[in-house]
Amino acid sequence: MPAEHGGDDASSLDKNIWSVAWLLEKMRAKQSSKWSGTNAHPTYTNNKLGNVLNAFAHFVYQYSQNTIVIADIQTSSLGPKNVLFDMMFHTETGDSGVGDHGQFGIETFVKAHTCVTRCAQLELDPLHIDTDSEKDD
């Protein structure tokens, strides 16, 4: 993005680690669909794409060994395809970005998630919050 719009020009990006660059997708549709929020994780049982994205979020959580939750999932249509964009994460350390709510964000997802058809098809484990660390010694 040109400097007059608050970004650096391409030649300065390599020179300054604090450079700002705006990445814009020329082909991205102006219309988008929001499938989850920062701490809102609705279940889509009757929507094919929503169902796939529910299972994808579950997969990310399980694949990360219960340490990462993907949130704020959005898509835009590009012909017959859907492009995922603008996602964020909740991590155990809570330091992946401004919207990372750490363990609270992870627990919010686990409490809200209801397994959908594709979770079973992927043989994903049922979700539960590990209470062992919360027990008194």
Automatic annotation (TrEMBL):
Domain Alpha-type protein kinase stretches: 1-127
Entries under InterPro entries matching the protein: a-kinase_dom, Alpha-type_PK, Kinase-like_dom_sf
Domain of life: Eukaryota
The UniProt record lists the keyword Kinase: yes
Matches recorded under PROSITE patterns: ALPHA_KINASE
GO biological process: myosin II filament disassembly; response to differentiation-inducing factor 1
UniProt keyword annotations, A-Z: ATP-binding, Kinase, Nucleotide-binding, Serine/threonine-protein kinase, Transferase
Record GO terms (molecular function): ATP binding; protein serine/threonine kinase activity
Official protein name in the record: Kinase-like protein
Organism: Dendrothele bispora (strain CBS 962.96)
Lineage: Eukaryota, Fungi, Dikarya, Basidiomycota, Agaricomycotina
